[in-house]
Amino acid sequence: MPQVVPSDPPPKRAPTLYLIAAIKIGKGLLLLLAALGIFALAGKDLSDAFDDFLRWLHLDPERRFFMNIGEWLDTITPANVKEIASGTLLFGLFLLTCGVGLAFRAKWAIWVSIGESACFIPVEAFELLRRRLPETDAHRMFTHPRLALAALLAVNVFIVWYLFKNRARLFRHHL
Fold it and tell me: In whole angstroms, what is the distance from residue 26 CA to residue 32 CA?
């Protein structure tokens, strides 16, 4: 009589886990594309590129708001642009790795994803509270992002809560 060897049960379906993985993979891919675009701008005059972009959008680059941005862009050096592009590239690769790890249910990926999402919660909460106080000098370019910031904070809190609460069920075969 053949002996039946019990095997680990197959992992249960987890559409929310795969949605979180897809979000992280999507953000990682967008950051990689942004990094490539920023690297392409490293050797160019940023204020001229900004003016060309505004003209392409049929906006007047002589408006004071756009002139302030152009003056600020004149202070940025090619080395600064390369540093920003490198940081964007590294964070994009990090998010891509986390997303793929979650999709394959790697044990390390849940803790890395919980840590990555949780580290932004205090920053987002601080920004949300800071923008609610009338006496603070919030950046003038972004005076009303409360709804988007609150939604981002809620998504990160949900991701941390969901992954932490369901870690044993979702990653049982790896624990």
Answer: 10
Which of 49, 168, 34, 28 is CA-nearest to residue 111? 168
Task: Give the position of tokens 């990653």.
Answer: 171
Phi, psi values for residue 31, rounded to 5°: -70, -35
- CB count within 10 Å of CB 119 equals 11
Tokens, residue 26: 């999507």
The residue assigned the tokens 């060309």 is: 52
- How far is it, in rounded angstroms, from Cα 53 to Cα 51? 5
Name the token pair of 169.
């069920």
Contact 51, 61 (CB under 8 A): yes
Mean pLDDT computed over 63-92: 90
Full DSSP string of 88-151: HHHHHHHHHHHHHHHHTT-HHHHHHHHHHHHHHHHHHHHHHHHHH-TTS---GGGS--HHHHHH
Whether the predicted pLDDT of 19 surpasses 80? yes
Burial 82-108 (b: 16+ CB within 10 A, else e): eebbeebbebbeebbbbbebbbebbee
Q: Whole-model pTM?
A: 0.74
